[in-house]
Structures are given as C-alpha cells and as structure tokens.
Amino acid sequence: MQEEVEQKVRDFCRLFYQSTFIPVSGVRKDGTVFAAEPGIPGTSASPAGALFSELSRRAKEKNPNYLVCDCFAYLGICSVSDTFIVVGPVLSTRYSEDTIHGYLRESGLPVSSAEALRQFFYESPQVSFGQLLNTLLFVHYSLNGEALDYASHFSGEAISRQQRTVSLVGNGLLLEEETKSFHNTWYFEQEYLSLIRQGQPEKLRELILRASNGLRPGTTAGSALRQTKNIFIASITLATRAAIEGGVPMETAYELSDHYIQQAEKMQRGTDIEALESSALLDFAGRASHTKIPEGMSREMYQVVQFVQNNIDRPIQVEDCAAAIGRSRSYTSRKFKQEMGFDLSAFIQRCRLEEAKSLLGSSDLSLSEIAEKLCFSSQSYFQNVFKKKFGLTPMQYRNQTGISLREEIRNSD
C-alpha cells in the first residue's frame, strides 16, 4: 500500500513540475526524500532540510500548511497517507546572496550547496504568497480528493484569487490540418508573447522546440533569405513590445531590438537567423523575469517593494510606503502582509540589514557611519539587530568577509 502511495506521489511530482516548474518533493515521515523535482544538486536532503520537521508538525495541525522563512522564502506542505508533499522553496522576488546564505543557514543545507541553490532559485518561477496557498489547495485536492475553501482554510492569509493565463490553443500550436491554412503563426505568436510578458524563458524554450518544425508563416519576400529576415524583424518588434509590457525598461528593450535586427541583417544563412531569433526571444523573456511583477502580487505592493529597495538609505517607515502609493497606513500594512506573508516593517528592516552586509564587505565605512547611512537609531541598536539576525556582530562579519576575500584573491593568484 505504501509503495503504491509513493509511486502516485512520484508521478504527481513529475507531472506537477513539468506543468508549473515550481519545485516539489515527496518526503517520508522520517524525512527521507523519495521524489524530488528538480531537487538541489549536490545534496540528497530535502530542499526543506532542517525545516522539514517544523513543516511536518504544521501539516499535522492543518493540512495543507505552509512556512515563511526569515529569508522570505516560502515552503508549503501537504500530507498524503504517511508521506508528505513539500512545495518549494520559492520566492516572490528575485533572490539575493543574503537569500542564499539565509536559506542555507535556516535549512541546515551544506554551504557547498550554495551554487546549486543559486541555480535552483534562478530556474524556479517567482511565486507570490497567495499563489503558493492556492497551489497547496490544488495539491491537496489532487492527492487527497478534498476540495477546501481558501478563505476558511487559510483564514487570515491572502484572499486574492490568482489569475491564470489560459492557452489559446490548448495542448497544440497548429491549426487543425483540415483548414489547410498557410498562415498558422498567430497562435504561436500569442503564446510566445505571453511567455515573454510573464518572464518565463524556460517555458518559452520548450514552446520554441515544440513549434520549430510546424509553422507556416506565408510569403513576405521574393527570396528565402529576405523572407527569413522579414519574419525576424516582425518577431523582434512584437517581442520588444511584450518585454516592455513585462517590465523591461523601454530604452533597454529598443536598444536590444536594434542590436538584434542589425545582427540579422548581416547574416547570409537562414538557419543562423532562426537561431538568433530564438536566442533573442529568450533574452527578452529572461530580462522580463528579472523585472516582472510576480503573479498574485498587486501592482501596488510591487511599487511598495520597489520604493523600499530604492530608498533604503532614507528613514522610511510604513507610513512613507503608504504615501508612495496613495493609500492609508492600515491598508498598506494589511495588504502587504496578505500578499507577502510577512510584515512590511520586517521587510524594511531586512532590506536595511542586507545593505549593511554589503557595505561591511565592500566599503571602509565605520560602523557608526553605516548605522547613520542606513537610518538606524544608534550604532548600538544596529549592532544588536545585526547580531540577532545573522548570529555575528557587524565587525565579526566584516573580519570574516575580509578574510574570505583575501583568500579568494590569493587563490586566484
């Protein structure tokens, strides 16, 4: 019976990951991992690591359940018979080096896994807090057959419904054969433009591979080479607009467009131009993935995140964030907690501490200068909150970072 359950979980993890690219694992109650999509290379442990015990405890209290880490990573868990499905870790914003080191510390994963963890987060989609909770309800229904109500099960958490992008063509990209259309690229265009806007380069890569041999764009020029170049220009023009809509700065998008079109015009082989087109589309999607508003995060809260990160050297408070979006303090604070899963004031403090780590490792500013620059009330308060968060005093961290940097320089010589 247990073998059948585990096989079902393996199949589910594989299909779930292929559909969403959200990391998912199957874990036995003793913490042994028997399925991991994609897993973290270099370690056989669950991506949750030492956090699994806390997750499993929470799953016994309420199934499914979740955990928000101090580094702002999200983990979800769903129990199935005597096994568990662990969803994540995922992030709602782009990872930083502090995210990597913070997660390694909290999960107890070996420091040697740092590079693998960077790749893990880079390849994973950004997932909002609300989206994670909805995903857990889907996992629970798929494996346990119980449909739970979002608001009642996760009372107090985010209550925003996620908008799903619906494919215009189902599982295929081509028009039905009986139409005999020689202009069947419209569906493909809608699909790849949507993926560029969403910033999903990996899904776009799969789409390009599936469609590579089946598109019939019609005739736009007298020669095959000119035809290929014309199609390239049209495709890049559409991709440029989609990237801007996805958050890529307008000037950057247009500079990329000019660069790629100029490259294509110099080429004399159609296959080279087609390869460049694929690379260009993936480039646009990759850039959008770094600037997009994560699915499930409102534009208002995205603006709050940007406001904090851009003004971390000013004495900003929750009130200032609210004023930046023209909302009340109570609304902004409540909405941020609903969508992100943690308090806005905690986010402001963490951003300050992350900037402090950067300054300690890369500048000669004194502790008092850093405390003043980042608007801590005093040097002693800065030292206390820094040690509480990272387990080292600011000076210990600076000395440790300096030693590591000197060793790295010495080894490179």
- The radius of gyration is 24 Å
Helix/strand-derived category reads: alpha+beta
- So how many helices? 18
Order of helices and strands: HEEHEEEHHHHHHHHHHHHHHHH
Describe the structure.
The structure is a single chain. With 413 residues, the chain is of the alpha+beta class. Helices cover 59% and strands 7% of the residues. It has three domains: 2-153, Beta-Lactamase (2-Layer Sandwich); 177-291, no CATH class; 299-412, Orthogonal Bundle (Arc Repressor Mutant, subunit A), CATH 1.10.10.60. It has helices at residues 2-20, 52-61, 97-107, 114-123, 129-144, 150-153, 186-198, 201-211, 224-245, 250-266, 270-291, 299-310, 318-324, 329-340, 344-362, 367-373, 379-390, 394-412, and strands at 24-28, 33-37, 65-68, 74-80, 83-90. It has a five-stranded antiparallel beta sheet with strand order 2-1-5-4-3, sandwiched between helices. The relative contact order is 0.07. The model is unreliable at 157-184 and 403-413 (pLDDT under 50).
Please give a quick description of this structure:
By secondary structure, the protein is α+β, with helices and mostly antiparallel strands. The protein has helices at residues 2-20, 52-61, 97-107, 114-123, 129-144, 150-153, 186-198, 201-211, 224-245, 250-266, 270-291, 299-310, 318-324, 329-340, 344-362, 367-373, 379-390, 394-412; strands spanning 24-28, 33-37, 65-68, 74-80, 83-90. Strands 2-1-5-4-3 form a five-stranded antiparallel sheet, with helices on both faces.
